[in-house]
Amino acid sequence: MSLRRVTLIAVIAFLAAGTGVFAARMLHPAASDAGAELHALMHERLDLDAMQEQKLETLEAEFAKRRTNLEARLKADNARLAEAIAAEHVYGPRVSAAVDATHHSMGAVQKATLEHVFAMRAILRPDQQPQFDAVVDKALTASAQ
Predict the structure, then answer these.
(1) pTM
(2) Which residues constitute the domain of residue 137?
(3) CB atoms within 10 A of CB 98
(4) Which CATH number do you get for residue 102?
(5) pLDDT in tens, 86-107
(6) Distance (Å, rounded) from C-alpha 121 to C-alpha 132?
(7) What sign has the CA pseudo-torsion 11, 17, 20, 21?
(8) Are the C-beta atoms of 31 and 114 separated by less than 8 Å?
(9) Burial of 30 (0-12, 13-18, 19+ CB in 10 A)
(10) Domain total in the chain
(11) CA–CA separation, 128 vs 110, rounded Å?
């Protein structure tokens, strides 16, 4: 294998890895920190009744499945992006389409997460909602500060 080909493969691998890291940083750190704080709030500080606990368990199980599927789609989109980069070696139509697909998948994860957050909020009593809202607000604005 020529040095040029090895270098090209290394660059493509680097770009694909960078895209994956970018996607992970966009989705996971804030979501994980916020998720952990929301989890602690829901399970430890809000004193949910038995009905709320049951509904929360169901919501969490459904969301876990949905998120796994969406993240698999995002991973597949990143692989297609790497393939497009390897095929075109420029920001051509395949790369552009692959980037758009990746962004669409990232948006789908974000939308599903927000739907889950609103579903959790909906099971809370009015007296519990302000604490929940404060944690969500903090999660969304913390990185902007």
Answers:
(1) 0.71
(2) 3-144
(3) 22
(4) 1.20.120.1490
(5) 999 999 999 999 999 999 999 9
(6) 7
(7) negative
(8) no
(9) middle
(10) 1
(11) 24
